[in-house]
Amino acid sequence: MNKPKAHIDHTNTVISIRGLKKSFGDLHILRGVDLDLYQGENLVVLGRSGMGKSVLIKIVCGLLRADSGSIMVLGNDVITADATTLQEIRLNVGFSFQNSALYDSMTVRKNLEFPLVRNQTKLSRAEIDRAVEEVLDAVGLSQTINQMPSELSGGQRKRIGIARTLILQPQIMLYDEPTAGLDPITCIEINDLINEVQQRFKTSSIIITHDMTCAKHTGDRIAILLDGQFQRQGNFDEVFDTDDARVKPFYDYNFIQ
Question: Total domain count for the chain?
């Protein structure tokens, strides 16, 4: 399926990263990263395992602290933000975890209600029900509302994880390996869903993946993280129109071999 044309506002930068560095002991992961995310854009970050892709988005939403640099998210500096500001940032940034992060002891309904009632305490029962029904409809799983996570397939769990992120109506979505561990047909469904979320909820997204099909089908722009910095950026064809031996294997493995 071709990527739907997105309405991207290049005059509105929702995330701006400059000179970002992060090390774990002597292991230097991010070595001066610069990156912008624009309003309405799906930005795919590609890179080999261990190159810092997941570290990057965890720093963006304040789950990890950077060593130096600046990260502006919706006009707020994440690195210098106090606890109150950081909480406000997190409410506007949805994090879709690789493992879906559902509570196994709760039904789908309760999983979706949990972030809502924790963060918006004045909602009525009717408003909560309406929000749950809307996000379940958005991910195409209204029929699962009373099921337990153990009764869902891997693809359904991914979709419910995305629904739980959407229920707070974030302006920015962060997807960590959204197609990992899924069969090819389910991967296509998740890719389509990411595009549908962008169109329906007007989100801006960073999509962390090593799945080239996901990158091609969801990304308005691709950025490749190599040796702790972004080495190539552009649309899919622009990024892979190169003889760079660090970049070509990504394409060759997925589309040639």
Answer: 1
What is the spatial distance between Cα 57 and Cα 172, in angstroms, rounded to a whole number?
11
Residue 128 lies in a domain: yes
CA 79, CA 69: separation in Å to the nearest integer?
A: 8
Residue that has been written with the tokens 């552009």 in this structure: 234
* Nearest Cα residue to 46 out of 207, 175, 256: 207
Bridge partners (DSSP) listed for residue 226: 229
- Cα–Cα distance measured from residue 43 to residue 57, given in angstroms and rounded to the nearest whole number: 12
In tens, the pLDDT along 164-181 reads 999 999 999 999 999 998
Residue type, 97: F
Residue 127 lies in a domain: yes
**What is the reported pTM?**
0.92
**Please, what is the average pLDDT of the chain?**
91
pLDDT at 203 over 90: yes
CB atoms within 10 A of CB 39: 17
**Could you tell me the residue range of the domain that residue 149 belongs to?**
99-169
